[in-house]
């Protein structure tokens, strides 16, 4: 039994948001084990960035860029901070975060609660080595979504290694409409234009990703894939939380509104990943997110087409030591199946 497993019952006596705050404080105070595990087979290059391993901490955990360095030290190959919006906002009324312990899942309707892009950028300004991405969104009351994404990107771009446009949270009204082909094309064009402007001012060219929902129809996925390839998007993150509840029917909190994450999302998110990989033919990198709880889950995502993976909800149930355990398990699986690198395994189930 790990130390975290022994401590978890006490942590679960706290409301979920207070427990999350406690976890951030524990990281900041060095109360979480660090990881020195490295294996050359796990090193991979995606969108021009060199990752020490493919396992990332997804957006939602470190919303305000408070503990990214400590998360990297715990064994994550990259950390995605945010979602941040141009201006600070409180998010939706509490309670807005619910544990579904029976299914090792969470439902959230946080609503992009964050201190704003400038606050996050200030904490990232003097960061050390390690890959950190910035996940950006629109303010709830904004009438111009594209302008909000551009504004947040302009603030974060100089201090992160890549930008992710989150257009798939179910907790901001109208956000998922940006996944439609015309709206997505307009957004990508605006972000690419903003990057060109920043590069002209001396910034290096950095990747831009878009995070999509697992609830898209086949027709919408086709439009997303086509638009992403036509615009030469650097990558797609597949996927965000789901509004579906079929996997948790009858459980306490299952009827709460918001996005469901954790183990019950794995199948749906992985099916979406497979579909996008098939539609893009491996032409653009995919980051697999949704329901990863162990090394086998991560390996399944990679073989389905993910060049990188991300997780968050499983940490609530497994603790920060999970990153190293997954990396060790991935190394073992690569060796078992005759792959010398992560890149060789990406999409291998389709070959």
Q: Describe it for me?
A:
- This protein has 351 residues and is an alpha/beta fold.
- It has a single domain, classed as TIM Barrel, CATH 3.20.20.70.
- Helix content is 37%, strand content 16%.
- Strand 1 and strand 2 form a beta hairpin.
- Helix 7 packs across helix 8 and helix 8 packs parallel to helix 9.
- The longest helix is centred in the middle third of the chain and has 20 residues.
- The N and C termini lie far apart (39 Å).
Number of domains: 1
Compressed to H and E, one letter per element, the order equals: HHEEEHEEEHEHEHEHEEHEHEHHH
Outline: globular
Assign the CATH architecture.
Alpha-Beta Barrel
CATH fold annotation: TIM Barrel
Distance between the termini: 39 Å
Short description:
The protein contains 12 helices and 13 strands.
What's the structural blueprint in terms of helices and strands?
Elements: H1 3-11, H2 16-28, E1 44-46, E2 49-51, E3 55-57, H3 68-73, E4 78-84, E5 97-100, E6 105-108, H4 117-124, E7 131-136, H5 145-156, E8 162-166, H6 181-200, E9 208-212, H7 218-230, E10 235-238, E11 259-262, H8 266-280, E12 286-289, H9 295-304, E13 308-311, H10 313-318, H11 322-336, H12 342-345
Parallel strand pairs: 3-4, 3-13, 4-7, 7-8, 8-9, 9-10, 10-12, 12-13
Antiparallel strand pairs: 1-2, 5-6, 6-11
Characteristic terms for this protein:
single chain; 351 residues; alpha/beta; three-stranded antiparallel β-sheet; 13 strands; 37% helix
């Amino acid at each position: 039994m790990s130390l975290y497993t022994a401590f978890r019952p006490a942590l679960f006596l706290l409301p979920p948001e207070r427990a999350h705050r406690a976890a951030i404080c524990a990281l900041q105070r060095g109360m979480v084990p660090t990881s020195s595990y490295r294996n050359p087979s796990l090193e991979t290059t995606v969108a021009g960035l060199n990752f020490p391993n493919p396992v990332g901490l997804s957006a939602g955990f470190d919303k305000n860029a408070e503990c990214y360095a400590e998360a990297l030290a715990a064994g994550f190959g990259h950390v995605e901070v945010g979602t941040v919006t141009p201006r600070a906002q409180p998010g939706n009324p509490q309670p807005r975060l619910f544990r579904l312990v029976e299914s090792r899942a969470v439902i959230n309707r946080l609503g992009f609660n964050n201190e704003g892009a400038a606050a996050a950028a200030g904490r990232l300004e003097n960061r050390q080595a390690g890959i950190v991405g910035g996940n950006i969104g629109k303010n709830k009351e904004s009438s111009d979504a594209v302008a909000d994404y551009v504004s947040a990107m302009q603030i974060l771009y100089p201090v992160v290694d890549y930008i992710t446009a989150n257009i798939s949270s179910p907790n901001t009204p109208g956000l998922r409409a940006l996944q439609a082909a015309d709206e997505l094309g307009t957004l990508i064009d605006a972000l690419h234009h903003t990057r060109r402007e920043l590069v002209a001012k001396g910034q290096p060219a950095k990747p831009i990703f878009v995070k999509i929902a697992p609830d898209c129809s086949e027709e919408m996925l086709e439009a997303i894939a086509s638009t992403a390839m036509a615009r030469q998007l650097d990558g797609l993150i597949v996927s965000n939380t789901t509004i579906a509840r079929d996997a948790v029917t009858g459980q306490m909190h299952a009827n709460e509104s918001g996005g469901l994450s954790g183990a019950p999302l794995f199948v749906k998110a992985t099916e979406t990943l497979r579909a996008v990989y098939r539609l893009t033919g491996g032409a653009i990198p995919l980051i697999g997110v949704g329901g990863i709880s162990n090394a086998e889950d991560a390996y399944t995502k990679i073989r389905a087409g993910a060049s990188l993976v991300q997780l968050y909800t499983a940490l609530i149930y497994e603790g920060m030591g999970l990153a190293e355990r997954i990396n060790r398990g991935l190394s073992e699986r690569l060796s078992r199946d005759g792959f010398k690198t992560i890149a060789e395994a990406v999409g291998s189930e389709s070959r």
